[in-house]
Amino acid sequence: MKTASFDGPYGAVAYRESTGTGHPVVLVHGNSASSHAFERQLTAPLGRTLRLIALDLPGHGRSADATDLSAYGLQGYARTLVAFARGLGITEAVFVGWSLGGHIVLEAAPDLAQARGFMIFGTPPLGFPPAMDRAFLPNPAMNIGFASEITREQAEQYAEAAFRPGRTEVPPVFVEDIVRTDGRARAQLAASIAPDGYRDEIEVVARLDRPLAVLHGAQEQLVNGAYFDGLAMPTLWRGAVQTFPEAGHMPQWEDTDGFNRLLQDFVSDATRPR
Questions:
Q1: Strand locations in 160-229, DSSP E?
Q2: pTM, rounded to two decimals
Q3: What three-state secondary structure class fits 52?
């Protein structure tokens, strides 16, 4: 696996790239996470076929902490993603976003005119004002994701909420990623969920002219699956939200084989000659 960095608009952006030489797929992780969230894609047979590229957002993983706090809002993250794609010459990639990463992908989508498709999961598209009470389930862990300072116990609680209820073991790397994250990134993210702080994502998905795959873990502890029922998504892949019965917020980890099959199928469909 290749490990490298890119000189982004807010500082050095670290990324990892699988050994595959197929169509490029950019993987964008969630709040207080890193490219480790896609370990089971990068190192799987999928990663030996497709060219999977997983970046660490500013203030996360091995990427530099930002000196300009605007880097940590949805607009700043999207700016980083667009610059990353252009800098690596992969603007025709398929863009995959998990949780916050999905919101970033939707924020960037209008500026990624050559992208072949978009996949989001753990991501309810938000409009103005954001219907947080309908999009998300009541879970105290949500507040941790917006706190600048957290304890290790809170980091463990936040990591546990990403999996289906009753999971007894959370990979330590996810807790370490949460602890490592620049706390200002969480606080600034909360501040950016305001008028003019992000694009109307409901409008973005309604106007997309390229395939959009939406995935959902049926045992989510954070996102309300019923929320998707009322959204207009005319380019929705296979005409329905793809559900993982035994997964929570992290189907790419909890149902790796099923997730990787869907990702492979979506990339194949999205990259067929038009």
A1: 212-217
A2: 0.97
A3: strand
Q: Token pair of 105, please?
A: 């992908």
What separation, in Å, do the N-terminal and C-terminal C-alpha atoms of the chain show? 32
Total domains present in the chain:
1
- Of the candidates 161, 172, 171, which has an alpha carbon nearest to the alpha carbon of residue 138? 161
CB 84 within 8 Å of CB 6: yes
CATH number at residue 199: 3.40.50.1820
- Residues in CB range of 246: below 8 A, 6 or more apart: 164, 218, 219, 254, 255
Question: Cα–Cα distance between 124 and 231 in angstroms, integer?
Answer: 10
Distance, CA of 141 to CA of 144 (rounded, Å): 5
Q: For residue 234, what are the domain limits?
A: 2-270
Examine the pLDDT at 247 and tell me if it is beyond 80: yes
> Quick one: tokens of 27?
């993987």
* pLDDT surpassing 90 at residue 246: yes
